[in-house]
Amino acid sequence: MPTPTVPIDELPSAAHAARLEAEHLWAGRTRLNPWTAHRLEDGTIALSAEVHVRYAPTALASFTANAYTYFEGRPGKPGDQLPALDVSVAGREACVWRTGGVWVELWHPVTAPAAVDRPEPRPAGTSRPPRRGLPGARLPFGRRSKTATQ
C-alpha cells in the first residue's frame, strides 16, 4: 500500500529536527537529493533522501558503523534506533534510523553487476595449441653458456 506524501513545509518540528540532524551528520561527505516525506501506516513520518557520492556503499557502511558515537547516550524518544543498513527494497541500499520518533532514510541505487564475458568452453578432448614465441618461453641456449672471449 503506498504511503501518502507529506509536503516538507507541513512537517512537524520533530521531522524538521531529524532532517537537519541528518544533513549535519552528512555535511561534507556527499550531496543529498531533495528530501521526500511520507506518513507510514502507524502515523509516523519517514524522511528519505538519495545519496550522491562515488563510493556510496562504502560511505553508508562507514556511517552506519560509526554513527553510534553520535547517537549513543543522547536523550531520545522510546523506539528510537541506531542506524542500520537496509537492503529490503530491491535495487537500492539504505541506511535507516529513527530519531525523535521520525524515521530517516539515506539511500543509493544498486545496479546489478555487469555480466563478465567468458570464453566459450572447449569440447572435451581438444587441447590448446602449443605456445610459441611468448615472453618468458625457454631461450635457445643454456643457462651457463660460455662466450667466445672466455
Strand percent estimate: 15-25%
**SS element count, helices:** 3
Q: Structural class, from secondary structure content?
A: alpha+beta
Mean pLDDT comes to: 76
| Secondary-structure element series | HEEEHHEEE
Alpha-carbon Rg, integer: 29 Å
**What overall form do the CA principal axes indicate?**
elongated
The first-to-last residue Cα distance is: 91 Å
What's the main sheet like? 6 strands, mixed
Low-confidence stretches are: none
Number of strands: 6
Helix content: 10-25%
Plain-language structure description:
Helix content is 19%, strand content 24%. The mean pLDDT is 76. The chain contains three helices and six strands; from the N terminus they run αβββααβββ.
What is the element layout, followed by pairings?
Layout: H1 13-26, E1 31-32, E2 36-39, E3 45-52, H2 56-66, H3 68-71, E4 81-86, E5 92-99, E6 102-109
Parallel strand pairs: 3-6
Antiparallel strand pairs: 1-3, 2-3, 4-5, 5-6
Provide a concise account of the structure shown.
It is built from 3 helices and 6 strands; from the N terminus they run H-E-E-E-H-H-E-E-E.
Observed structural traits:
150 residues; alpha+beta; 6 strands; 3 helices; elongated
